[in-house]
Design a protein that fits this description.
The chain is α/β, with parallel strands linked by helices. It has a single domain, classed as Alpha-Beta Plaits, CATH 3.30.70.1350. The protein is 40% helix and 21% strand. The chain has a 4-stranded mixed sheet. Helix 3 packs across helix 4. The radius of gyration is 19 Å and the shape is globular. The relative contact order is 0.15.
Length: 136
């Protein structure tokens, strides 16, 4: 018995168990973030930024300010998306991984907030994007 030659079929997204590597519409400025941050869930981050493109300049400047305040103690700066449909919340976090004890990391985060974040980031932006620390 012979079967007809296989015909490639595109599986609709709702039936696929894999997310596409890149959303269909990409953000040109998103590429600017790639050398600055590591990403925990880059698909969700980019999808979120498609909706909130105005956050990108804040995210870029946050990296500069974290480097200025944390210096060599910032081992990694990770950008990740967090969403909770039950709480009707979604947003981005810049997580600064440090080589410091928790108290010293939190002290630097307080300095970052006082010297830059609270003065330059509006409440609306702060509800969608915030910075946290992760100590070793």
């Amino acid at each position: 018995m012979s079967y007809p030659a296989a015909v490639p079929v595109e599986i609709p997204a709702r039936f696929s168990d894999r997310k596409p590597a890149v959303p269909r519409r990409t953000i040109p400025k998103f590429d600017v973030l790639k050398p600055l941050y590591t990403f925990k869930n880059s698909f969700e981050v980019e999808k979120f930024l498609l909706q909130y493109k105005d956050l990108i300049p804040y995210i870029i400047e946050t990296h500069k300010q974290v480097q200025k305040i944390f210096g060599k103690n910032a081992l990694e700066i990770r950008l990740e998306y967090a969403g909770d449909p039950e709480e009707d919340y979604d947003g981005l976090f810049a997580i600064v991984k440090t080589n410091l004890p928790a108290k010293e990391s939190l002290d630097l985060l307080d300095k970052f907030d006082e010297e830059w974040f609270l003065e330059n980031v509006s409440r609306e932006v702060g509800l969608q994007f915030t910075v946290e620390v992760e100590s070793l």
